[in-house]
Fold this protein.
Amino acid sequence: MLPSHPSDDTRSASPWLPDAIPVRETKALVLGTLLRERRTRDAVRALLPERLTTATDVLRLLAVWSGGEADLLAPPRLRSLPRPLRRELLAVLDALDPALLVEDVLRHDDLWKRAAEILHPFERYERHPRAALAFAVLRGTDIRGPGLGAALRATAPAYPQAVRVDGARLRAATWTGRAEEALRGGDPDRALAVLAERPGELVRRLDHLLRLYAAEALPGRVAEVLAERLPKAGPGPVLCALGRLRIRHLPGTRRVFFPRGQVAHSYTRDEDRAPLAEAVTRSVCELFEREVLRRLAAAEPYDVAVLDSRLAHLHVPSAERAAAKALVTVPKGSFQALPDGEVLRMFLHWTEPPKKRVDLDLSVVLFDADWNYAGVCDYTNLVYRDRAVVHSGDLTSAPAPDGASEYVDIDLDRLADTGVRFAMPVVFSFNNIPFELLPDAFAGFMALPGRSGRTSRYDPRTVRQRYDLVGNSRIHVPLLVDLERRGFLWTDVHLPDDEGYHSVWAHQEDLARIGRDLFQYFSTGRTTLWELAAWHAAARCPEVAVLRRTPRPGDPDELWTYRRGADEDTAAFAARLVGLRDPDATRSSAEADVLAGAAASGRSAFLALVEGDVAPAGASGSVYRLLPGPVDGCGLEHLAAGDLVAALG
């Protein structure tokens, strides 16, 4: 919030800012926005030396200052700086560790070259020689001459960990280079020593390091270093590595990668890594879990927790910046039950910009249990097998203001009877117009109660999921429907359009491979929201109530109660809870939700639910819920999945 009176302008900005902003993109957004406002600029400038701790922090700030996003995915044209601010930012860069400065600058080399045009790092190089050193590496500056060249030659020998002289140029001597060399050298102890310097990278590259040791049990030195350095690692790398390492003793078939970007793409390759010994993965995961519990034990305690066991089908979020903006925010890779109803209706709506025809298409590709192609329902084939899948018809333009809509109705039981197991919806731009150019484009699905009486009317009350089509993309695969398990896997991936998908029939083999790889990848090796919520509960609550949902409709749910024993440590309590073993009490009831709410009523409570149908009266505390419900009116603090992760920071 900006100050309300001009007399407040020259005061410290600390009354408006928290002591720390842990997410760097958020920090840059806040500082950059306040810098752009003349009333707060001077106050914020005084905070820059302590708040900007990496070169990339400075670059994010410049992006926000220039009207862009702090994520640096689509950097704007950089705006010029007032001279005092320019000098202060160069002073911030000059005060950083030169080795880290050089490495950060090279990580975003193109954008830093553009930033150099407004920072002028060589103008008064004697004031900030280390910053000048980094930009000389970036620009490949000739150092043979007098003046700047002589100064660079004199400064470089003082920082051998950052740069080296190579004839007429300075070259980077980065930590990343040392780490890669150590890992390639086959000396695991040396690699461990280098990786230990950066806990986040130690966690990310731990699989590679353990393969170098090729031990049947976790080496003692590795265990010591992990115990010492894990407290410094970020929550994202810790949770991601924990999920993947848990299954690394098992043979794998395919690997899936999601490169960072404005939209989520996926790439796959064969698994060529040797499995690790099971004793190694078990020991490493125990260290990681103990570290998670240690961090959570320092958070605010609660009297009781109420957890939904169906959280086991939801994954801990990662790279949410590239996720589609959706009605229900579902972490990528999560598996959910299909909504009640005989017919699942996929829908697509778009509006084209003026004077530009845009033809989007909605298709559903069908596969059997072994991912063999079974058929397609699209603009070339409007009806599949006795109306098991029906397309509403092909529309080739969407003029404003009404736009255009396409539907595909999937009769779940009838389609399953044909031998189809998987249905893959695909949205693509037939005439190659990217989604980001459309003023309005969204898709999703709804549940229809029966086969009869269906119309094209859009009823918002039946919508289970709606997501925006955005970004520089032309092909989107939002989910995979599993008819056998009566659920869907939320994939939210965009496919490269270099080969074109104007006819999904022509790409049936590629789509089958993509579906198979994603289904296998997300089925195992991911830390779930159930585990994270259970760790929160075990570390912060002496009592936990678990809603055990029955898979068959009509059967009563169960309420399992766990109480931490007097001689039971946090790790043992967490293991019992995560594994759903040995509850202290169980109760079967058609009103398990009511019983769970009663257990938390009038108490300090932590709730983590799939559906918000537990409503404790007079309770205080916080709640994560995926779907809305009565709990929304209980006055509890609402948490997102990312908040559960951020508590580990």
